[in-house]
Amino acid sequence: MTTRENIEQVLWSACDTFRGKMNSGVYKDYILSMLFVKYLNDTIKETKEELSKRYNGDEERIQRALQRGRFYMPDDASFDFLYVNKKAPNIGSLINVALKSIENANGGKLRNIFGNIDFNSQTIGDGKEKIATLSNLLEDMNKLDLRPSQLENNDIIGDAYMYMLAKFAGEDGKKGGEFYTPAEVSTVLARLVAPKDNDRIYDATCGSGSLLIKAFNQVASKKAQIYGQERNFQTWGLCRMNMFLHGIDDAKIYQGDTISNPQTVEDGKLMQFQCIVANPPFSLDKWANGYAADSSDKDFKMSKELDIYHRFDWGVPPKSKGDYAFVLHMLHSLDSNGGKMAIVMPHGVLFRGASEGEIRKKLIDLNLLDAVIGLPANLFYGTSIPACILVFKKGRLNHDILFIDASKEYEQGKNQNSLRNSDIDKIIDTYKNRKEIEKYSHLANIEEIKENDYNLNIPRYVDTFEEEEQIDIHAVMAEIKELEAQRAELDKEIEGYLKELGL
Hints:
By secondary structure, the protein is of the alpha/beta class. It is built from 15 helices and 11 strands. The mean pLDDT is 91.
């Protein structure tokens, strides 16, 4: 049987083929794309064997059935075909043609799923070097048997894919945070919104889809509809592969800039979602591209004609910091009947003034903000700064905001910190039961928020100051005297030894 460990070992070994030639942010696309091709190849191969038995080798009926199946792969685009030709002088071109053929053979389902990836790129090398590199990649992938009947369980390919995304994000530094949210943080967000059967789940900046998958997995029946949008074309393709590998074939993942060109629109209005999770880029500069590119922050205005969905009627964020642009977009996409949203933000959104302060006041006055959760530092790829989670809920009956300071409860790592299961459970339990815990959480009523001028900085509400233990001066002096007496006795002993030695 093929285990998750088998897959991870092979994939990590395949990385060695590319290390030194390019950074992981580039070669991840080659490895993950080829894993997807191998997955399609082995799945279709096993299906073909089953159909051959069912139709007694009738090739015409077999091909018709295959073309009606979940995926279809022409013989000259299969992994097996590429493996046989792994030493061909034009192997890079053969792979490119195969990828395009796979996309075309599956209609809109796999359209552009491989993005702009080029296996014939000079980045891989010239001549024999390129042949050797791609041949080694195919050799590594051929070690995997990904036929469904040979997999330890149905989740291992998707789990291995997520494992590699995490590894690549860790290696890729700052850029890693653009396509992957750490698994523990994704779990916190997913459990905070707690999606139910038939909910629509949305991530407006979905990256490679890890957050959406975590949220989807909270629905035991797996009856929920996934929606996402990602600006980066290559990452959009990785996200769609991720969905297919996790069996979420009907996920609707759109490509494009969410703020300037939202794709989740129906009947001329933004679609409404019961659950929203997101980890947008922190303090994105020039987020208003296409609205007022030449204006300064000071006089930045946005006409209602440009903002056709009226997302910024509650206020326009500064052009140099797009945090509230994403918040407002998603709030206007949140179902008014109890919709819940959990979004990762930098702490600056809690206290910055000017237009952001006005937006914050509006959201609080509209009773939309449900909780503010402070996270430990160094959790995210590419930044060591601590972040927070804002939880919004529409149709709230209570008029208070829960503050949780979870910044001191984590497991310290060599390069990156992480949340333990116990840390996650404590956050969720405190939130669900709106608990007051000394030096950890506080339930603030709206009057208290107003007294603080709508400043949401967590230390204003959760006092985590630890008093230092008082020092007993008399005990310390007594200890010093005792040590001095011991030293005097030791000096006498040393002096006696020196006399005996005639020194």
